[in-house]
Structure formats: structure tokens, C-alpha cells
Amino acid sequence: MPRKTTNRHHRAARRALLAIVPLVLAIAGWQWLQNHPEHNPWAPLDLNDPPGWATRTKLLKLRDNVTECRAVLERSDVAFTVLEPAGEGDCARPDRTQLARYPLAPDTPPVTCPVAAALEIWRRDHVIPAARNILGSEVARIEHLGAFSCRRMYGGPDGPWSEHATANAIDIAAFILEDGRRISVLRDWTGDDPEARFLRAVRDGACTSFATVLSLDYNAAHADHFHFDQDVRWSGVCR
Question: Residue 35 is inside which H or E element, if any?
Fold first, then answer.
């Protein structure tokens, strides 16, 4: 066979091979996503899946789809109760979802479903491991300062409404361990002892589940609690 013809055949074969490679990679990538739903943005969210690249995006998408959010809780075997809507105007709460087995104290307040879903992931993936690894104990209860408060931000007479006005937020104040210790945001935040490291670990972990996470690193108003909310307008604020 003439050399020119052979070269043309080789070039054609290389082009065909190069055309096939992207297809093979795409098929392999799609198959990998099917086996790793936590990284697959198209896979239905299941809170029992390990945290992945797509988890936070899926959680934030639940903000405007309460029906899908409750389907996620059911799919994930999370016990919850749907309460009747309450409030009116800027403090109307059409989504009142109450977790049934969450160790909040002094009670388990109704929150929006997206906050409930984020709380479940935060406790499982960050609070429980941090307590075991840093403090050597299990968490018995998580103390909060409330979820619903019909007020504007910082309690002022005007300005934007707080996410607490619709219970799309919760303030976490302390953690009670099984061994009796109480880890307080107000008392234990500063320093580099195990208690402070634990608090920073659970604060940082919350940033993968909630749209907004605020602590004393943000301002003095959060000296005694962590503020968590699912307001997607401020998504990415983690301080």
C-alpha cells in the first residue's frame, strides 16, 4: 500500500479513536455518578447518603419546594410531623415541620423543612463525629435559643425581616454530652482547648448544610449562639 494511503488510514484511525474517547469517558463518568448519588446533582437527595459535592446544592434547592423537602425526609426515614400553618403577613409560616427524634432542648420547635433537613445532616456528619473524636463522648442534647420570632433583623423597627420570622432559622447555644459536660458557645468559644475546637468544628461543618452560619467571628451579637438559616439570598456566609 502506498505510504500516503497508509498515512491517511492512520490519521483517520486516530481521529476515530479521539472521537470515541470522550464518549467512553462520559459513559464512565455517568456510571460513576450513578454509584455515588452524593456527588450526582440529578440523583434524588437522601440524607442517609454520605456528604458529597452535590449535597449542599440539593439542600438549598429545597428552600422553594416544601413538597420535595418532605419527600426527602420520608425517603431518608426521618420522623417528622407537619403542623398547621400559622401566623400572617411577613411572619406567616406555611411550612411548619417538627422533627420527632431530634435531641433539641428545651423542646423541638417547628422549623421550615429545609432547616429540618440541614439539622439532620449537620448532627450526623459533624456534631456526632466531632464529639466522639475531640471530646470522647456522645451528644445527649443540643440546646437552642429558639427558631421562630416575628421580628426584623437584630430586633430593629425597620430593615429586612429576620429568617426567624418564618422559622427558617435556629439559634444553637450549647451541647450537653452523655458524660454530663455542657459545651457552651458563650463560655467555650475562645481558646484552643478541646471544647473550643469542638465548637469550631461543628460551626464549620454547619456551613456545608446551611445557607448562612453566623458565630462570634461574625459579630458580638452572636457571642452566645450559632445562627443557622436557609436563606439562599445570603448563601455562602459562614463566619
Answer: helix 3-35
Contacts with 220 (C-beta within 8 Å, 6 or more apart), sequence order: none
Distance CA 198, CA 195 (A): 5
Q: Are the beta carbons of 43 and 28 closer than 8 angstroms?
A: no
Q: What is the pLDDT of residues 174-210, one digit of tens each?
A: 999 999 999 999 999 999 999 999 999 999 999 999 9
What predicted TM-score, i.e. pTM, was given to this entire model?
0.84
91: CB partners within 8 A, 6+ apart: 150, 161, 165, 166
* Position 68 pLDDT exceeds 60: yes
| Cα–Cα distance for residue pair 200/130, rounded to 1 Å | 10
CA distances from 196 to 45, 127, 221 (A): 32, 13, 18
